[in-house]
Design a protein that fits this description.
Distance between the termini of chain A: 50 Å
Number of strands of chain A: 14
Number of strands of chain B: 5
Oligomer: heterodimer
Shape of chain B: globular
Order of helices and strands of chain B: EEHEEEHHHH
Distance between the termini of chain B: 48 Å
Number of helices of chain B: 5
Helix content of chain B: 25-40%
Structural class of chain A: alpha+beta
Chain lengths: ~280, ~170
């Protein structure tokens, strides 16, 4: 359980990191908090030739609000964002789900963008991005582009990111007045990978549910009104559409049931906390 | 800064429990192994080596960290605290350690160094922790001896003793 050999570059600027990425392509991996990458390295599931450490780049460590979005930089640790006093007002869904990301000890090191780059299908932060229709700002030595979360996640640990690109920031829409948000998850222990996680957004004329841990990526769907009889059928359709499979943690049937039950629970909670 | 080559050793300097430490490590060397093998600081234990069990937890720049999920080269210039730094004197236990002893919060002791480091840094930020908060912190550790209840009792007791200590 030791990593294979690799070279290491402690980048001092974003430009330096991007130049190295361009030079090494798919042989390079960005190292941020390391809470997803180091287990992969220790288990030798990945064998990069070089790691590019971006955690000494001060400019990436910030979260800023502009144009109705909270932009979280690639160097911001999950614990730092969770400690941001205004987060519950700015992006309440993220504030509700961050305590479920890993453990106290891994949140202290792991970054928000690192979890997005890793793209585990059960991860909470990608789920929030999908629920809120957020986006991911990618940057290479040549250009910048912003990709909507819906098209960014392409499969289990697979994303739209090109080899020479790094995530510079993730963009989360700020809470809108009159909207409610809720999050819930089922896992063996608090902090373990979610068997199923649900995030709900309730707007004046729209209900949206996002589900993680069932399909190969987080998936969102707009649903009918809460008080109508159509909701149960819609939740059931949604649950079946996700292609749940049995694994060592849970059966497909249990996962579908969680989508129906947890889904309804978070939708009701989101509607009740509209403000 | 130049790239560090794979397979060769590079100087890394950091502070370990208040004293300067310097080692030569390959980029792939884990901090847990650097502490144990390069510096002989074997108080930090190594369990699962993929971040699940928590026994290798140390404190880096005032925050808890799995030393098995940290490269030694990432520790350059950092302030690292390990279980060896918890006691005030060689033959004295710290307040948290003494509470662990009183409450039988360990049996085999393998998981204890990591749990002590997590609780030590957590109690610095939360002087009156609830049992629920302590359970959340302990959620990042595995202990197969105690059933966790005596660990919670010890942490609550230590928090009370630390509050007392702060008033003196």
């Amino acid at each position: 359980m030791k990593p294979p050999p690799f070279a290491y570059l402690r980048a001092e600027s974003v430009e330096q990191a991007l130049t190295a990425l361009r030079q090494h392509g798919d042989e390079a991996r960005i190292l941020a908090g390391g809470q997803s990458l180091l287990p992969m390295l220790n288990m030798r599931l990945t064998r990069p030739a070089i790691l590019i450490d971006i955690m000494r780049i001060g400019a990436l460590r910030e979260a800023t609000v502009s144009n109705g979005m909270l932009a979280v930089g690639a160097g911001m640790r999950q614990a730092s964002l969770l400690g941001r006093a205004s987060l519950a007002r700015e992006v309440p869904l993220l504030a509700a789900s961050l305590p479920w990301v890993g453990h106290y000890q891994t949140r202290a090191r792991g970054t928000v963008c690192g979890s997005v780059a890793h793209a585990d299908p059960s991860a909470e932060i990608p789920l929030c991005l999908i629920a809120l229709s957020g986006s991911i700002r990618l940057r290479s030595a040549r250009k910048r582009r912003t990709v909507p979360a819906e098209t960014f996640f392409t499969g289990t640990m697979m994303t739209e990111r090109a080899d020479e690109e790094m995530i510079e920031a993730v963009l989360l829409p700020l809470a809108k007045p009159g909207c409610g948000y809720a999050f819930a998850e089922a896992a063996r222990r608090h902090g373990d990978f979610a068997i199923t996680a649900c995030a709900a957004v309730a707007e004046a004329d729209r209900l949206r549910l996002a589900v993680g841990g069932v399909a190969d990526r987080p998936v969102a769907r707009d649903l009918p009104r809460l008080d109508g009889s159509a909701l149960d059928d819609a939740l059931n359709d949604f649950a079946w559409s996700l292609g749940a499979r049995d694994d060592m943690h849970a059966t497909a049937r249990y996962r579908r049931d969680l989508v129906r039950k947890l889904g309804r629970k978070v939708l009701e909670e989101a509607v009740s906390c509209r403000r | 800064m130049p790239q560090m080559k794979a397979g060769s050793r590079h100087p890394v300097r950091f502070t370990l429990n208040g004293a300067p430490a310097s080692i030569e490590a390959e980029p792939r060397t884990l901090l847990s192994d650097a502490l144990r093998h390069h510096l002989g600081a074997t108080g930090t234990h190594v369990g699962c080596e993929h971040g699940v069990c928590g026994t290798c937890t140390v404190v880096i720049d005032g925050a808890p960290a799995r030393s098995c999920l940290t490269l030694a080269v990432q520790a350059e210039g950092c302030d690292i605290r390990t279980v060896e730094g918890l006691s005030p004197l060689a033959d004295r236990l710290g307040i948290l350690q003494a509470a662990f002893r009183r409450h039988h919060a360990l049996q085999c002791g393998f998981c204890t160094p990591g749990i002590l480091m997590s609780l030590d840094i957590f109690l610095k930020s939360a002087s009156s922790p609830t049992e629920e908060e302590l359970r959340d912190v302990l959620g990042g550790h595995l202990c197969r001896c105690t059933g966790y209840a005596p660990i919670i009792a010890a942490a609550l007791d230590a928090a009370a003793a630390l509050r007392e200590d702060a008033h003196v």
